[in-house]
Structure formats: C-alpha cells, structure tokens
Design a protein that fits this description.
single chain; 423 residues; alpha+beta; hpI Integrase, Chain A; 2 domains; five-stranded mixed beta sheet; 41% helix; 13% strand; globular
Length: 423
C-alpha cells in the first residue's frame, strides 16, 4: 500500500500474485495477475505491464482522485510503508529496525491513526510532539517517532514516483526537541578484564570477542562453525579471521545492519587461541549457542550474565515478574553510566574503536573492521583493506588492549617492508 500512489500493491497468496488497489469509490479491490512461480509466471516487465493494464481498465491511471486521497488514513499508509521497507530490494530495513518502527507506528496510530493522511501536517506533528513531551519521552525518542511520521506521509506515491502528499516540514514551528549530547559509555581496559575474568566460560569468550573485535552483538551471535559461506557469518579454522555475512536478531539470521557490515575481521593471535580453546573439537553449529542448540538471546545474556556481574559497584535491588508475581532481584551491574543506567554490549564496540585509534591503526582498517561506511571520495578510492598481510600485521600490533584470563599479553611490532629491510 505504500504504492497507493501507483494505485496498486502486488501481493502473493496461495501461490498466486494479485494486485490490490483502491477503486474510485474508495473500495478495496484485488485482481489476479499470474502464478507466483512455474508455468504462466510473468517476468518483472510483463508483471508491471499487466498491472498497468488492470489499473487503466479501472480508470485509475493519472492523478489520484481527491476522494481516494482523503480516504487514505495514517494507519493504513503506515502499515503499508512498514511492509514496503521490510520487503524492498534496495536497502531493506533489518528486523530490529522494523521492530522499532512498528512500536513507533503503534504510538502514532493511537494518536492520529484514523486521521486522513491528507490532513497530517506540521500542525499535526506539533500536536503529537506536545503529547509525547507531556509523557516525558526523551528528545531522541520523540525525534525518531516524528521521523517515522514523515516517512509515512512521503511513502504514498503517484504513478510517476512523485509524492501524493508533499510536505515542507518546519521543525521550528512544530517545536521539535533538540537532541543533546547522548550518553555513549565505553568500557575501560580494567573493566573489560574484570568482566571477562568473572564471566562464565561461553560468556567470557563472547565478551573477549566483542572487546577484541568491536563486532556488533548480533554479528557475534551469528557466528557459525564450518566452511565459509555467503549465507552465514563464519570463523576460519585458525580463528584468525571472521567473515561477517549475516547477523542475528532474536534467533533468526538476517542481513547485517549495512552493506559496509559485510566484511572480514582480523583477530589478534592470542584472542584466536582463546577462542580455539573454547571451540575444542566442535566442527559445526553456532559458536555461541543455548542449551537447545539455538543462538543465544541478547536479552538473556544481559539478564543472566552481563548486568549481574559485580565489577567494583554496589548492588542495587530490582524487581522481576516470575509467574505473575513480583520478585525482588539483586543486580550487580557491570558498570553504570553517568545517569545510572546499565551499560550494554555497544560499550565493548566503543572500547575497541578507542583502542585501535590510540594504537595509531590506519583509519582504513579501523572503519573496515568495525563495518563503518566510507565518509569521503578518498575513502572509497583507497584499497588499503585489500592488503591482507598488512591488515593482519596491524591486528597483531594493535593487540587487544586488555589481558585475557591466564594469558600473558605479547605485542609484536609491525613488520618492516621489504624495501625498508633491503635498506
């Protein structure tokens, strides 16, 4: 329905492709187009032509009739936009992002869901912001919700790809809050050592991996043992290289956060040895798996391991619901942020970025290992990341920045080039 402006959305049901569109009288109509596969299936071009023929026969080509414009509600357009963002071929959003958008849409639907999209204006956004502010939501959350509101309005297109409801958003008029400096806590080397040293076996290896590579938690939990594959994130037999191809959200594999996240990460040899000891004789399965053989869940790791770890902080009381009853629970947070919040997995990633910078690692390698997008034309021109031997030398030279349990840290200097050796 994000193609409402094209007056039609193609969908699959019972092995067949149908076109759903809004007729001139505002009613929803579905027309069979072709089988979804096998004999009779239309090519992409043929399918588009068939769609246009159906719309033309219904008298729906050209500008969208005003009565249809007024009949499209924010709720309907929002659901269609989310579906399009998840299923589109170019840059589909991840499951985690879709989940966030879904929660924001639910909030917006409770406020303006039945409002015709034609009537969603700066004044509407201003009213939404006032309501969200009264509920004491953070400036960042309010800004993200308003961004989704704007996405919905812009998602309805005409047959030429133009916006049916063009808007010139005025942030000053709607009084959009200004996002202040965000809390971005990072673990210190001492904290990483304590966390890894106090954690149970598989969690200790996971935390060492996060701190020693800067991987996103979903990428780390997606690591599978076995041969390299474009459909899986894998680790080499010597554990010196991780091939990031997939991420995990919940217990399902998905595409990584960005195209730049598809990469290779070179590991320090001591970390590789630490991981190999954990793998043992295993040849297949998830590197970090639950007792049922499925990937670990992020929320369970936080609840059962990272947050309860006592690392130089006093315990505080929390309450958890167990079988419908509120039960007192003592938490020993690994670290508390400036405002007292419990710190999550991204603090390991920030630790790694800080350590690599402090060791003078070339920025090309820092961005490549962390999966960050190039920022300039020069970044795109540079082929440093393809120099495998130099990458591995820098991975070993930079080291971990923290001591592994029972492992003496040894740092090897970057090897001189052949030209320097000859000199």
């Amino acid at each position: 329905m994000s193609n409402i402006g094209q007056l039609g959305t193609v969908y699959k049901a019972s092995g067949k492709l149908y076109l759903r569109y809004t007729a001139k009288d505002g009613s929803k109509t579905s027309v069979f187009l072709c089988p979804a596969k096998g004999e009779g299936k239309l090519s992409k071009g043929q399918l588009e032509q068939r769609k246009l023929e159906v719309l033309k026969a219904a008298g729906l080509t050209g500008e969208m009739p005003e009565e249809i414009k007024q009949g499209i509600t924010f709720r309907d357009a929002g659901a269609a936009m989310l579906h399009q963002y998840v299923t589109r071929k170019r840059n589909p959003i991840s499951s985690a992002t879709a989940r966030g958008y879904s929660s924001y849409l639910a909030k917006l639907d409770s406020l303006i869901g039945d409002l015709p999209l034609a009537q969603v204006t700066n004044k509407t956004a201003k009213s939404v912001i006032e309501t969200l502010s009264a509920e004491e939501l953070s400036a960042k959350t309010i800004t993200e919700i308003i961004s989704v509101l704007k996405y919905v309005v812009a998602s309805v297109l005409d047959e030429n790809g133009g916006e049916v409801y063009p808007r010139q958003w005025n942030h000053d008029f709607m009084d959009l809050p200004i996002i202040g400096k965000q809390s971005q806590p990072a673990f210190t080397p001492e904290q990483v050592e304590k966390i890894v040293g106090k954690a149970q076996a598989r969690y200790a290896v996971l935390y060492a991996l996060l701190a020693g590579t800067g991987m996103r938690i979903g990428e780390a939990l997606a690591i599978e043992l076995g041969p390299q594959s474009e459909d899986a994130t894998t680790i080499s037999g010597d554990c010196l290289t991780i091939y990031v191809r997939k991420s995990v959200f919940g217990q399902k594999k998905q595409h990584p956060k960005t195209e730049s996240a598809i990469r290779e990460i070179d590991l320090d040899p001591e970390l590789a040895t630490f991981i190999k000891g954990y793998i043992g004789d295993r040849k297949e399965g998830w590197l970090f798996s639950s007792d049922s053989g499925k990937p670990l869940l992020q929320r369970n790791i936080l609840r059962d391991s990272l947050h309860p770890l006592e690392v130089g902080r006093k315990a505080f009381q929390s309450y958890r619901t167990v079988k419908g009853e509120s039960v007192k629970h003592i938490l020993f947070p690994a670290v508390l942020g400036a405002t007292g919040e419990k710190i999550g997995f991204h603090a390991f990633r920030r630790f790694r970025a800080t350590h690599l910078r402090s060791e003078g690692v070339p920025e090309d390698f820092v961005m490549f290992w962390l999966g960050h997008k190039e920022k300039t034309i020069t970044d795109r021109y540079s082929k440093m990341k393809e120099r495998l031997e130099l990458r591995k030398e820098w991975a070993e030279k930079a080291g971990l920045g923290f001591k592994l349990p029972g492992v003496k840290v040894v740092t090897m200097a970057v090897k001189s080039s052949k030209k320097e050796s000859a000199a």
